[in-house]
Amino acid sequence: MCGDSQKSKSKARFYLYEKKGSFSCKCHNCDYSATLSWLLKTLDPNLYKQYTFEVLKETGVSHGRTHAHADAHTHAPVRREDKILSLLPRLDSLPNDHPAVMWATKRRLPKESLSRLYYSENYGEWAKNIDPDVQAGDDERIVIPILDMDGKVVGAQGRIIGNSKPDRSTIRYLTVKADKDAGKTWYGLDRCDPKKQVIVVEGPLDSLFLDNCVAMVGLSDATNIPEELKDSDLIYALDNEPRNKQVGEAMERLLEDGHKVCVWSEKFRGLKDINDMVLAGNGRTNIQYDIIRNSFSGLAGHIALKRWAK
To answer: How far apart are the C-alpha atoms of 292 and 228, rounded to whole Å?
Structure first.
């Protein structure tokens, strides 16, 4: 990438290695690093397409459908989601000056969360591996994979970065699901412990700041809890928007359904969500403590909600 091999034919400082089931590369001269699929896409788009086809064929993924692997007895089982995600570079594998990494750094996303986020130069093209019928444009986006409790990809959300086309400029998030009839999608089920207290937020990126936290991926049908969390101790911490009618009504429904709801304290007034609170200088531990301390249910919850909405 940096031309190091042209300077000295005897030096070998560009290495290909396997990491967590996928291949990555690194140049020890210029510190370039990327996944193999990203390298191929950069250097040879035609070879990248062949590689993509072979990866999907190997794992039995073709236009969102799975098939039995022909060599099941000679190869270790390959999880469907690993191969789909290996088509994209993880943010923690990209250089610091990459637009996706710069965006994540600007938003102060936890460094450890970058291994859970990916980058797609053309989100709409990649999303067809999950839903072949989806129309998601061709913008570059940060990809937030949505996994079930077993780690299987059931969907993804794409967050716009850089310059989008004028007719798509207002669509910051685009969500795609493998099963369009599956109902509500929840993010973070694969990394939460349902036996411990679980905090429920609206957006996947907000959930990355808190311990044992999941996201509902939208407000609709907030009381439709996944089976895995039916017996869990849940605290709902919706966006801090007292003037938002949809948020207020969702909090009312949750209280009426017997759930605990965080009614944000006055010190967070004007800060819409957890990411905004972090950007304003609030520590993640303090935010989590404030959520637990200001969670209410029943009559106390309705009183606190009315006071917050004023």
So the answer is: 21
